[in-house]
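Subject: mismatched residue count in predicted assembly?

I count 471 residues in my input, but I want to confirm that the predicted structure covers every chain. Input:
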Amino acid sequence: MNKNKQALQVAALRNGTVIDHIPAEKLFTVVSLLGLEHMENNITIGFNLESKKLGTKGIIKIADKFFCDEEINRISVVAPHVKLNIIRDYEVIEKKEVYMPDDLKGIVKCANPKCITNNEPMATLFHVTDKENCVLKCHYCEKEQRKEEIVIL
Amino acid sequence: MMLYKLTDNNMENRSLVTIAEYSKEKILYMLEMAKQFEKTPNRKILQGKVVATLFFEPSTRTRLSFETAANRLGARVIGFSDPKATSSSKGETLKDTIMMVSNYADVIVMRHHLEGAARYASEVSPIPIVNAGDGANQHPSQTMLDLYSIYKTQGTLENLNIYLVGDLKYGRTVHSLLMAMRHFNPVFHFIAPEELKMPEEYKMYCRQNNIRYVEHTDFNEEIIADADILYMTRVQRERFTDMMEYERVKNVYILRSKMLEQTRPNLRILHPLPRVNEIAYDVDDSPKAYYFQQALNGLYAREAILCDVLGITLQDIL
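Triage response: the counts match. Full output below for your records.
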């Protein structure tokens, strides 16, 4: 694919944030974790785009939106290797990565059916015990969950 | 200090949810408090206080022990022992029940079948919560009475050989004991059938905390010859996926009096009770059998816990 066509797929953004290198199968989870469906900004979502690294990838471009770290780090649990480009006046002024926070509140469902969080109207809370391998420990039932067991609420 | 976390409204919350929150100093302090209550169990220091015992899951021993502790300290007790007779059976949330009861009582002792229930209750409650068991998760007052029993019979908690026998996979008491003993340089021996052996996460915990351990599948007099504490647990049929395996091991993990002949004179046998058949009745007559006194120690440990969460110090009871 030539460069121009690729450029057409990801049309230029004047101001805002580009979230790139999202694994294609995680794209819509990222959309929902960031609550994009409730935003009124101009948003472009690219799905199943070609990627040398990932095979297929997703990309999200949000006009006039600049996330704070807390907002954007929510997606680290599903897409830890995304790249953020902060755009101002058509220029990339900053490149960022996401970081796994120490705690995840109200994001992940506890896999233990006997955990209080699955039986009361309350927010879940997990402590990240191993950021490298994404191991979480439920604050309430104290059970650990591995990356492959994680279910997003 | 970690022990007394602040709640949102900045009131001191002295809840006891897990033994892991106790430092070495705090454990020794609580044992000293239990010792004082053993000397004089009947005191009126909680006169005018109301203790609520909320048992969302039935438990005779633990409830009677807490209620006796409250009564001997002069407190009045309210509560329920059968959730079928309460509003939680009408669909009331745990939070609402806790908020309602906290209007009436000074402390809540609760047992719940859901894991993490006590932690959550301690976060929403304006009064202290004492966890009397939350599912398979934590049961800190049992651990305190186990520690007190070990301390009392051995004169120390340091450098002991502790043998855990039976169901080490699901046995919540053995897991909590293991974690609480990390401060005291023990050597653990894990004696269990393949299907019920100590889970990897607790062995990893041992390695991380420099706790030495040895694993065995055999249970006989040679293996227990160096034991200071023999902590027996029940091997339950319903824990097995392979019934052939259950039939093979069900009589292996039974302690009989003749196995005690070569054991150390200071050996004491503990069991969280109820016993079914894992300790033969002929062991009861041995001076090394300690499980009934162990249950009595629960009373003193729980008197200490109730006082501590209500802000009464060792100084106040000396």
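The interface with chain B takes residues 112, 114-117, 119-122, 138-144 of chain A (CB under 8 Å). Marking this ticket as 'not a bug'.
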